[in-house]
Design goal:
CATH architecture of the largest domain: Orthogonal Bundle
Order of helices and strands: HHHHEEHEHHHHHHHHHHHHE
Number of strands: 4
Keywords: Heme, Iron, Metal-binding
Oligomer: single chain
CATH topology of the largest domain: Cytochrome p450
GO molecular function, one term: oxidoreductase activity, acting on paired donors, with incorporation or reduction of molecular oxygen
Organism: Lasiosphaeria miniovina
Structural class: mainly alpha
Number of domains: 3
Pfam family, one: p450
Largest sheet: 2 strands, antiparallel
Strand content: under 5%
Family: Belongs to the cytochrome P450 family.
CATH class of the largest domain: Mainly Alpha
Helix content: 55-70%
Radius of gyration: 28 Å
């Protein structure tokens, strides 16, 4: 926006100069059109450079009301802490160091590329203010959609304001305590499938070497397939799959160096649609196949539920809630049935449902598989932690009347629950650009 304003100002100055020149009838050393163009670019460059100098040098160091907040001061010229963050051994290394340096500061200020100010939310109280109390005073940066929007669609992650509130209400049922309790048998079943899958690779010493990310991705995509789509994908058991989501995601997430470069350039210049190289065409085909499979699931489920509703009405058994009478088991069924409770202009379209499902499929399986991989790494490198978790689970199972632990018994596994929280804290599987305030919130 600032560049547009500077361009308009330069244009106005050129028009004013041209009018002044005409009134004085001055002779020019070059044609008038060339003179006007050269003056426009000169005015634009001079004013844009001055504006950037103010934003990059003057404002963050001498004007910003945030400049007195605690934070690192050993900044690189025009890069702030950006160089350190890019070369750190992990994405959170510097954040952890700053949090330990200023443990009681609600916010820690640091500069990043272009000396842009960033606030690190550092205390539980500050997190509550930003993520709950004033959550709608912030918006997601535009670059986030350009980074991942092609893959996960315009679902819940990219909605804002009232639209976000509406869609949260629709989707909240999937994450209620009762829904999680109904999903527990699915989790047990897929855990057994993963165990069986790993046992197939055991050697004579009962040891197994496996690619953790690959195995965990197969399990998590199978879990997400049942809980989100209501479809058994069979990645852990079947070799011939009707819908191979995992193959498509592997193509999207594991790109060649040229494909990664195209993705980076596409953030700033939209080259994806017209660049005719295989590194780009393969990405487009995989993305289109994902959307085709999800759209097919949506159409089939809509037709299935509408047919059930017609049969129920014909039999005089229509009732509120799920057509199956159990509140629905997967997200797709819940969304289709929930459409009946909204006005025509507010109900979810099939395109809306496809976008939501793409979000849960991509984010749900990949992040969970990443967290499980880090958890396995910690267990393998810290046998003491592994022994404590095994002892706690064995103690609960020894007193359980169930063949498999129920939700209440799982919640009693305090050491395991804290271990999972610590894995998510130290090895967060989901990183995103920080949100921008839509208005200055009072925190």
């Amino acid at each position: 926006m600032s560049s547009h304003l500077v361009a308009l100002a330069a244009l106005a100055e050129v028009v004013a100069w041209a009018a002044w020149h005409k009134s004085l009838s001055l002779d020019l050393a070059m044609p008038l059109a060339l003179t006007l163009v050269s003056r426009f670019f000169a005015y634009f460059a001079l004013q844009y450079g001055a504006l950037k100098f103010y934003h990059v040098v003057v404002y963050p160091n001498y004007v910003s009301p945030l400049r007195h907040l605690p934070g690192p001061k050993d900044n690189f010229p025009f890069m702030g802490q950006g160089k350190k963050l890019l070369t750190a051994s992990s994405p959170i290394e510097d954040y952890v160091k700053w949090g330990n340096t200023w443990p009681d500061a609600p916010f820690i200020r640091h500069l990043t590329l272009g000396n842009m100010e960033v606030l690190l939310v550092n205390t539980p109280e500050a997190h509550r203010e930003v993520l709950q109390t004033h959550c709608y005073s912030f918006r997601k940066p535009d670059i986030l959609y350009r980074l991942v929007g092609e893959i996960i669609g315009r679902g819940l992650l990219f909605t804002e304001g009232e639209e976000h509130k509406k869609q949260r209400r629709i989707l909240a049922g999937l994450f209620s305590a009762s829904s999680i309790k109904r999903m527990l048998p699915i989790f047990h079943e897929k855990a057994r499938s993963l165990t069986k899958f790993l046992e197939q690779g055991l050697d004579e010493n009962r040891r197994v070497t496996f690619e953790a990310v690959d195995a965990f991705s197969k399990m998590t995509i199978d879990v997400v397939g049942v809980t989100v789509l209501g479809v058994e994908l069979g990645n852990l058991s079947a070799s011939d799959k009707k819908m191979d989501f995992l193959k498509c995601y592997h193509r999207l997430f594991n790109q060649s160096p040229l494909g990664a470069l195209i993705g980076f350039v596409n953030i700033y210049v939209p080259v994806r649609k017209w660049l005719p190289v295989e590194a780009n065409l393969g990405f487009i085909r995989a993305n289109a196949e994902l959307r085709r499979m999800v759209s097919m699931c949506v159409r089939e489920r809509v037709q299935e539920i509408e047919e059930k509703q017609r049969r129920q009405q014909a039999d005089g058994k229509a009732k509120e809630g799920s057509v199956d009478g159990d509140g629905g088991r997967d997200l797709l069924t819940m969304m289709v049935e929930e459409r009946r409770n909204f006005k025509k202009e507010d109900e979810l379209t099939e395109e809306d449902m496809v976008n939501h499902l793409l979000t849960f499929l991509a984010a749900g399986h990949e992040t969970t598989a990443s967290a499980m991989t880090w958890a396995a790494y910690i267990l393998a490198t810290k046998p003491g932690v592994q022994d404590k978790i095994r002892a706690e689970i064995s103690a609960v199972l020894a007193t359980s009347a169930n063949a498999e632990p129920d939700l209440a018994e799982i919640e009693r596994l305090h050491y395991l629950n804290n271990f999972c929280r610590e894995v998510l804290r130290l090895f967060s599987p989901g990183m995103a650009p920080p949100p921008f305030p839509t208005a200055p919130p009072l925190i």
